[in-house]
Amino acid sequence: MNVRRHISTAALAGSAVLGLLAVSACSTSGAADKEDGKLAVTASFYPMQFLAEKIGGKHVSVTSLTAPGTEPHDLELSPKQTAQLGESDAIVYLKGVQPAVDEAVKQSGVKHTADAASFTKLESHGAEVGGHDHGGHEGESAEEHAEHSEHEGHEGEESGLDPHIWLDPVKYAEAAKGVEKTLAAADPKHKADYEKNTAALVKQLDELNQEYKDGLKNRKSDTFITTHAAFGYLAERYGLTEEAISGLDPEATDVSGSRVKELQGLAKKHNVDTVFFETLTSPDMAKTLAKDVHAKTDVLDPIEGITKKSRGDDYLAVMESNLKALQKALGAK
To answer: For residues 203 and 36, which has the higher predicted lDDT (pLDDT)?
Structure first.
């Protein structure tokens, strides 16, 4: 994902509409005035939709701006979507993933907005994240490793603030707590239920974190190769090294020859027998590299959307599948 990608023309075209909607959006008194009595929440893409639905429960009606199967980073908003955004009681989004959404939220006039990125610490990541095999601190814990890791990209490659916080269960739990506060502020009547639902979700994420810790303990390798650098926070959390073909941008196709050569060397050095690709982007680069290094391919899903191809029907199920794929690739017992 290119964090400096131009704002979509559709989002800019919707600005005038949003300006008019802002007055009506701010004048409503929220869920109490709606026929179904539910808080109208707009989520930017699936990981935010999951949080809103889990935390809001029966008290919210959640609509996602990103349709299933759509790569979210390059989303362009239709006039209908910009109108929907402005009429929301609350918005749950993640700044830095979808520039068009970031701009539209700014202009929406909606009072209650939750930027998941603001509830945890973002780090600058490049094509290599973690570095446990490449100068890491011997004997350190995963937490210490995360503190000591360097996050610069390779020479000539783009790095930037990494928004993929949902792939680290700990950071995702921090985001959940922030979303809960936003929904409670928008709908104080059901604050207790939002707190209860959040506590249950955080417990599930804590258990998921422990599963990853235990499941990746006894492994033969620390290094895994992906199409783009979506798994940096996950790698740091569990003392792994992610080597990405294209850095933060999932649509990048201009990978340098020196990077390909470097990855070929790393694959051989660290006995990498699997190159991971994703469900919503082209697998071509992963398959080409895998052929060059005599490795197989498999899916490591960044969970930007749930489709029929997803290995699970929600975030938790797909994270479980990702753990199994990593265990197999890293030789974990």
So the answer is: 203
